[in-house]
Please model this.
Amino acid sequence: MFNVEIGAPSIKKRAIVSILANFLYMIINFITGIIVARKLGPSNYGNFTFLIGVFIGFRELLELGTSKAFYTFISQKKQTIYFYIVYFLWQILQFIGVIILIAIILPQKWVNIIWQNHDKSLIILAFIATFSKNQGWQTIIYIGESLRKTIVVQLMNVSVGFLHFLFILILISINKITISNLFIIIIVEYVTISLISLKVLEINNDCFYKGKEPLVEIVKKYYAYCSPLVLLYIMSFLNIFFDKWLLQHFGGSIQQGFFSVSQKLGMISLLVTSSIIKIFWKEISEANKNNDKKKLFNLYRKTSRLIYFVGAVITCFLLMWTKYIVLIVLGPDYKDAYIPLGIMLFYPIHQSLGQINSAMFLATEKTKKYMSVVTFFLLLGIPVSYIFIASSSSPIPGLELGSIGLTIKMVLLQFIAINAQIILISKMFKWKIDVIYQLNVILLIIFAYSSKKIVEFGFSIFGFRVNIIFVVLIAGVIYLVFIYLLLYFFPNTIQMERNEFRKYLKII
Model:
């Protein structure tokens, strides 16, 4: 699938290590998130995720694509120390600016409307926590990946996940698990790991290009990359913000909690994509710079098919057991979350393709074309969200579907938007359009349903009464046999030859 890089771990080795580390991180993060959701309850957990979600939206507005530009430029080649200093100063400016905006500039009335009457000190804590994790720590990850230090980066990421798990257990043991305390420990964790990483990753003068680069030239590079994306990131902010705000306003914190836990459970399907996306971005960026069209095609086609299939395999199996998952994992307080969970499980399948598509556009600096196809669907998303979520008694009546409505909107628009991106990429690089492989999800649903029925029928014949977890495990084994037979006889499903499939199976 990948070529070996001289002087650094191969892409294959980095990808495998990244997948394994992300799998471990996912387990830790998943368990931690479920514990937090159970201890806080649907209402408080909804408030917690609402505050985080709002600032994730604000991040889009603040950055305007500069983080993507930063990673693309440092992936292409070494940059000067001044280049890094300019970017760090830009992040500091964002951080201070938002604190001043919330604490001093915005009238209290606006603060109440935007953050739905949450206390200002809690809002600022939420911002600092979100910034530390999603901007500060992500910058360190970008630098590590650009130096092909994937293994070190992933080990550190797992470490901070495990540390967070321990802190949560401590808060529970002393009965101090509150929303504000959760934000405080996130801040402490990610500020600490970011400072430690500067030493562990050995970021020194050898990592930089020896020379000077005028500030004007640095700004020009960012402007050329980001200016076509300004409208896109504004629309992305509005989309994320209004999804969270509309659900909190019309549905309340409990519906927000149902949606958030459904989203967390559904994100399991993104394991492989989140593991390899930065590696993929790095290699695509470099291949494009070297005009290696064959490598571009092979990386995109094989990665797209593989990550789609893996995500679909996980989703289709979990779909059969949503009621049990909600009751066993989250408890009876979340029993009504199984419907949005079932719908939400399909979202990450195409979201994974969306991340690959975004990397193709942005790592190859095709920002204008990316903006044109994505902005339309982001603009469409706001009124569609309103229609699904708003109450029937509103001046403009809505369907009042709460978390179910939001998940339907996300899945439907995602499917249409991602396929539009695939068509544009194919035309852009003059490749044959490849979308038929997405129909594999139908076959996987049949496999998952058959596996479940085989086990249930088998136990019913012999009159056995066993724990549901054991039933799921047996069904999972049967399901994996179906998957193995499919890939053995039709390895092109994931763009592989049979010998290549056997080789990767041995590695796994």
User: Anything to note?
Assistant: The chain is about 80% helix and 0% strand. The mean pLDDT is 83. Residues 63 and 90 are 9 Å apart (CA to CA).
